[in-house]
Amino acid sequence: MFLLCGLGNKGSEYAFTRHNIGYLVVDKFSERFHISIQKRLCGCKVGESEEFILAKPNTYMNLSGGPIASLVKRKSVPPESLVVIHDDIDMDFGRIRIRWNGRDGGHKGVRSVATALQSPLFYRMKIGIGRNPAIPPEEYVLSRFQKDEVENLAEILDRAVDALHTFVFESIEKAMSMFNRS
Questions:
Q1: Quick check: is 107 catalytic?
Q2: How would you classify the pairing of strands 82-88 and 2-6?
């Protein structure tokens, strides 16, 4: 059983911001595979199939760890079956990278998850959101996508869903090999 958790901020004011790309990926996955994310469990909105659980912590980004750790415990998900999907300001817009373990890179949502789990041992799917040096990072991550980015966003979300599907149904190594290079 895989647990695929998209990070983001609750609330309509954050719905289509860069920091919510983890939520957007989970929403796209649920749409493609017809998995409703309506159930509330452990402080998350969840949808389940026999192979995986989709989850979006129903909190603010920096508090994501508690709900995810509760869900991991309740569903007995081993670390190698947890994927946390989040934005990465230090990667080019649209780039996808899957990795095991590692530091939080300054991402407070990832830090919250590692703290709540008392371990950095889980998979991360990072989605690049780029950086604008003219805007402080705290403001930039909460900004909405630009028009040219919106035009490419559907393709980026589709690639991220393809990567997660490969991860769950084929192999982790194949997903990393196929999607980390582009």
A1: no
A2: parallel
User: Which candidate, 48, 51, 28, 23, places its Cα nearest to that of 38?
Assistant: 48
State the Cα–Cα distance between residues 163 and 165, nearest whole angstrom: 5
| Marked catalytic residue, from 19, 86, 107, 165 | 19
pTM given for the model: 0.96
Query: pLDDT truncated to tens, each residue of the chain (182 aa)?
Result: 999 999 999 999 999 999 999 999 999 999 999 999 999 999 999 999 999 999 999 999 999 999 999 999 999 999 999 999 999 999 999 999 999 998 998 999 999 999 999 999 999 999 999 999 999 999 999 999 999 999 999 999 999 999 999 999 999 999 999 999 75
| Token pair listed for 54 | 């989709």
For 45-66, give one letter per residue: b (16+ CB within 10 A) or e: bbbbeeebbbbbbbbbbebbbb
